[in-house]
Write a structure and sequence with these properties.
With 94 residues, the protein is α+β, with helices and mostly antiparallel strands. It is 37% helix and 28% strand. It has three helices and three strands, in the order H-E-H-E-E-H. It has a three-stranded antiparallel sheet. Helix 1 crosses helix 3.
């Protein structure tokens, strides 16, 4: 989770894509799955994740749990590599 005063600096994108690239380089995976809330669902959708099961109040009162998945296809892997190339320099500018 990124502190609210750091939103908009692409830190979440950097951290997520760095981890996903690391996993891709070291493991055979077919998909990524995350459990998130309604507050961050749109963030994951921007990167190709699709929502699955929703559990109302799944994390706490008023905080739903949404299971999201990104299937790894040649196209989604290419998109991930493109995103990584656009953010990997950020570690030097923050």
């Amino acid at each position: 989770m990124i502190a609210s005063d750091q939103h908009g600096k692409r830190l979440g994108e950097y951290l997520m894509t760095a981890r996903m690239i690391e996993v891709l380089n070291n493991h055979e995976v077919q998909a990524f799955r995350v459990a998130t809330s309604q507050h961050t669902e749109a963030f994951f959708e921007k990167y190709g994740f699709t929502a699955g099961q929703r559990i109302q109040n799944g994390f706490a009162d008023g905080l739903d749990m949404i299971e999201m998945k990104l299937a790894l296809t040649p196209d989604s892997q290419e998109d991930l590599l493109h995103k990584w190339k656009s953010v990997r320099h950020l570690v030097h500018t923050i």
